[in-house]
Amino acid sequence: MSFCLRFAPSPTGYLHVGNARVALINWLLAKKNHGKFILRIDDTDVKRSDKKYLKAIEEDLSWMGLNWDQKEYQSSRTEIYQKVFSQLKESKKIYPCYETKEELALKRKSQLSRGLPPIYDRSALKLTAQKKENFEKQGVKPYWRFYLKSKNIDWNDLVHGNLKFSNISLSDPVVFRSDGVPLFTISSVVDDVDMNITHIIRGDDHITNSAAQIEIFSALDKKPPIFCHLPLVQDASGEGLSKRIGSLSIRDIREKGIDPMAVNSVLARLGSSDPIRPFCDIQDLLEDFDIGRFSKSSPKFSLSETFRINTQLLQKLSFQEIVKRTGKLKNLNANFWDVIKENIETIDDIKEWQKVCFGSINPIIEDAEFLTDVEKLLPEEKFDQNTWGKWIGKIKAETNRKGESLFMPLRLAITGFKHGPELKKLLPVIGREKVVSRLKGLKG
């Protein structure tokens, strides 16, 4: 079988980590099996779709390294949906309904008050031809529902195993609005058929949709793809994610300076039986990937864990790989990287230490008299790895200081930070002139 998978976002908000995980797993399964990955934009809802979000989604996917082989827009497939509409109408697989939103809401309220499930009662099927004609004369255009057969639907899900669903508990899904616009339930099936989709990977909030859509595939005389329903990702507090409030969006994560492979490393194993660890490139992640490792439990995404993985990832990278990620940063060399890499959490931290070592900082002076005294004890020769040991030996002998009272004033003055790389390694990189200037409290 030639694998073909799709990611079908609606451009109504930024891409959050839950949807990004779905995109990544679709991409990994497709590429693991030398298949095709399609980006399919669900933009039939013109009022809510926004080009700003479409651009952001594409940028985020590209940033993650999820390049698509084909891109489709549902908004450009109107004629195809209308042909299917005519086909289903002629075969009486769909039927017209005339209720208003308010009338449907009252029906649901009445059913719930009587302890009944709020399922559409199919009252539209009882309308006479005269009744329908009267509605039409009044300017009421019908919306259309797909008629579900009263039977059990079952399929073998790649995560949940054998799933059984009784369509008796479902309303006949609305598939076309009164203005002719197809809804997700039907447009998704039509596209999956036309694009030869072999696997559908999405959140388990779509399980009910899948039960109905399997019948729609059958109505079109097509075999449904293989389904895989992933448990929805929660945030660290156990709350669900929402793309419209921007919670844990990929855009926000990018702005925090996290490497895309740190995000991919977390999302690819989130909810699986494997421990999360950093992968340096997507090819390594691809070779490791196994769809059978995911569990039925909802995983929690932790931003702090992602930062931890990001730190581990950066520390694993060679200097050449760092150069690829940072572009042409001034003064970035292998020696500088070896000095700072154990203290880097994000790529942006490199810029901070670049400023400390090669740029200008405002030194933090906590004990001016002490710093004046120790500046006079600095070795005269060019700084090297032995300079720190010689200098500290003299300072201890002259001042009797030790521990934090000795080291912290020096670190704050020389680097402007309480924590960082060993001063033993930093001094040769910063150089004597800057160290002397900073010990005197001068910017430099």
General description of the model:
The chain has 444 residues and is mainly alpha-helical. It folds into four domains: 1-68 and 182-316, Rossmann fold (3-Layer(aba) Sandwich), CATH 3.40.50; 80-176, Glutamyl-tRNA Synthetase, domain 3, CATH 3.90.800; 321-358, no CATH class; 368-439, no CATH class. It contains 19 helices and ten strands. The strands form four sheets. It has a three-stranded parallel beta sheet with strand order 1-2-3, with helices on one face. The chain has a three-stranded antiparallel beta sheet with strand order 4-5-8. α6 (184-194) packs across α7 (207-219) and α9 (260-269) packs across α11. The mean pLDDT is 93.
Please bin the fraction of helical residues.
Answer: 40-55%
The CATH architecture assignment of the largest domain turns out to be 3-Layer(aba) Sandwich
| Strand neighbour order, sheet with most strands | 1-2-3
Secondary structure category: mainly alpha
Q: Which series of helices and strands comes N to C?
A: EHEHEHEHHEEEEHEHEHHHHHHHHHHHH
CATH topology of the largest domain: Rossmann fold
Mean pLDDT rating: 93
- Report the portion of residues in β strands: 5-15%
Task: Please tag this protein with its features.
elongated, 444 residues, Glutamyl-tRNA Synthetase, domain 3, mainly alpha, 3-stranded antiparallel sheet, Rossmann fold
Helix and strand topology:
Layout: E1 4-7, H1 17-32, E2 36-41, H2 51-64, E3 70-73, H3 78-90, E4 94-97, H4 101-113, H5 129-137, E5 143-146, E6 152-157, E7 161-166, E8 174-176, H6 184-194, E9 199-203, H7 207-219, E10 226-230, H8 250-255, H9 260-269, H10 282-288, H11 303-316, H12 319-326, H13 334-340, H14 347-358, H15 368-375, H16 387-399, H17 404-415, H18 423-430, H19 432-439
Parallel strand pairs: 1-2, 2-3, 9-10
Antiparallel strand pairs: 4-5, 5-8, 6-7
